[in-house]
Amino acid sequence: MDKDFNKFMSQLKETNQTLDFFCDFDKISANVDNIKLSLCMLNSLIGTTDLRRSVETIWNRDPSAFSVMDILIAVRSNSKKNILNANGDCISLDRLFRSVDGVIDYLEDTGLADIFRERKINDLVDYVFGIETGLDSNARKNRSGHVMEKMVADIFNHNGIKYRKEVYSTEWANLQQVLGDDEKRFDFVIKTDHKTYLIEVNFYSGGGSKLNEVARSYSEIAPKVNSVPGFEFVWITDGIGWRHAKNKLQEAYNVIPRIYNLTSIKDFIKEVKEQ
């Protein structure tokens, strides 16, 4: 198998982001639906001329409606956010939602009270949908790896390659023996009549210390896996972030026989099909 590192580097893609990368609208919609009833009750605060009376009306009907109000300032309820109150004491944000006075303090001190009085928003469901969309952008960094896995899975599916996802090394005693105490989870496993390929997949559009660590880790794992008859380690990676860790990637490239990117993966597909 011919290998050309410079050619490999020249093929690296700037991004793996397709249009569905930016927002997970299914997750956003589900998050909003989970609190929609409470938001609809809180809608009665919009345009109020007597904030306390409006809050008390909701409180007497269902005080739990206020427990979702942290999302109105783009804070999730499971974040256990702490704040300083007017007395300088550190308290949990959700503590304010346990009384009418606490709710009033929250609305006035955040500025939401004026937003409601002046009708600067019309519907809290739509408002929170926008907030959830913004918060979802914070998940993009982690989503990039999942996008790469989906792209590789799509390539396998398109070529009729059978595979399994997220398979642990403990499935094979002889493999686990060479890996020692490390329990390794592989992104994909492809088994042919002649060989079992254990595959790791990632994409890096930017630099960072993680790239060096990943290259070092795979350089250690690959020889161990390849020493077991019938097994081979495969690394499919891409992204111009590797330009910042070129030396470490080249070291791995010289140690790991099977490294592919989204361009050269076709060579791996061809070999698997021939088996």
Tell me what you see in this structure.
By secondary structure, the chain is α/β, with parallel strands linked by helices. It is built from 12 helices and 7 strands. Helices cover 47% and strands 13% of the residues. It has a 5-stranded mixed β-sheet with strand order 3-4-5-6-7, with helices on both faces. A two-stranded antiparallel ribbon has the order 1-2. α11 (246-255) links the parallel β6 and β7 (259-260). α2 (25-34) crosses α7 and α10 (209-226) packs parallel to α11 (246-255).
Mean of all residue-level pLDDT scores: 90
Helix content: 40-55%
How would you describe the shape? elongated
Please tally the β strands and state the result. 7
Poorly predicted segments: none
Radius of gyration (CA) equals 26 Å
Instruction: Decide which structural class fits the backbone.
Output: alpha/beta
Helix-strand sequence: HHHHEEHHHHEHEEHEHEH
β-strand amount: 5-15%
> How do the strands of the widest beta sheet line up side by side?
3-4-5-6-7
Largest sheet: 5 strands, mixed
Distance between the termini: 15 Å
Total count of helical runs of at least 4 residues? 12
